[in-house]
Design goal:
Blueprint: E1 2-5, H1 14-28, E2 31-36, H2 43-53, E3 59-65, H3 70-76, E4 81-86, H4 95-109, E5 115-119, H5 126-129, E6 136-142, H6 149-152, H7 154-159, E7 162-166, H8 178-188, E8 193-196, H9 205-220
The structure holds guanosine-5'-triphosphate (GTP) and magnesium ion.
Length: about 220
């Protein structure tokens, strides 16, 4: 498993870089999914379960963290190609950093993946402000974090195409009202897809994985 050091991109326009990367990914037929959430919400565990369940699809993972390589090692142990990217203390990935991470991944796997996940740095603020060039932006909110998060971090909930509400196996231990949470999210983002699930018990995983398959097909048909 390879670790790369990334530094902030010094280009004039992140949005332009992101749009170009998205166009190139569409041409290559690879769908990049940007996963964002607060630290510990369950990104790596969701990815692990998804990789195990979707064995027929070639999946690669770009793990972005300020330090450590535990997540990438975990993913590689499942047989998926993974690159650990260190972000030089930065709390998000920009499009140039994502491109360099993807290039490193392609050197390892010869660009064979159908689906590539970017596990963004755990943070609900900065990653929402930077387009990475991904074809899909997905947020994960876990039950222990509370159902008030859409009120506190509206930008993140507004700009993603899907929300995974994870750790639903813990609902009986927390004062988390799923209906209220979903109402709050829909007020910010009426078209968002919402997947309540548990990566531990697997309940709800199928809907999430079917949606990913559908999005990949759609990505390749345009
Ligand atoms: N009960 C339960 N625990 C979960 C679930 N998903 C993740 N966890 C646990 O939550 C903790 C954090 O999960 P991770 O997958 O490491 O979270 P992360 O978002 O990748 O964390 P960072 O990379 O540090 O931001 C671990 O102890 C997981 O086992 C779930 O669906 N149910
Ligand atoms: Mg992780």
């Amino acid at each position: 498993m390879r670790t790369i050091e990334l530094h902030k991109s010094v280009t004039a326009s992140n949005d332009r870089d992101a749009n170009l990367l998205r166009k190139q990914m569409r041409t290559s037929g690879q769908l990049l999914v940007n996963l964002m959430s607060s630290p510990g919400s369950g990104k790596t565990r969701l990815l692990s379960r998804t990789i195990q369940d979707m064995a027929d699809i070639r999946i690669g993972v770009l793990e972005a963290d300020i330090a450590s390589d535990v997540d990438a090692l975990h993913i590689e142990a499942l047989g998926a190609k993974s690159i650990q990217a260190h972000t030089d203390g930065m709390c998000h990935m920009d499009a140039g950093m994502t491109r360099r991470g993807l290039e490193a991944l392609a050197e390892e796997s010869e660009g064979q993946e159908d689906l590539i996940f970017l596990e963004n740095v755990g943070n609900l603020i900065c990653p929402a402000e930077f387009d990475t060039g991904a074809g899909l932006d997905v947020m994960i909110l876990s039950v222990p974090e509370g159902d008030d998060k859409p009120l506190k971090y509206p930008l993140m909930f507004s700009r993603v195409q899907a929300l995974v509400i994870t750790k639903t196996d813990t609902l009986s231990y927390f004062d988390f009202d799923l209906r209220t949470c979903i109402e709050r999210v829909r007020k910010l983002n009426p078209r968002i897809r919402i997947f309540p699930l548990s990566a531990k018990t697997k309940e709800g995983m199928e809907d999430w994985e079917n949606w990913l398959r559908d999005r990949l097909k759609n990505w390749r048909s345009h």
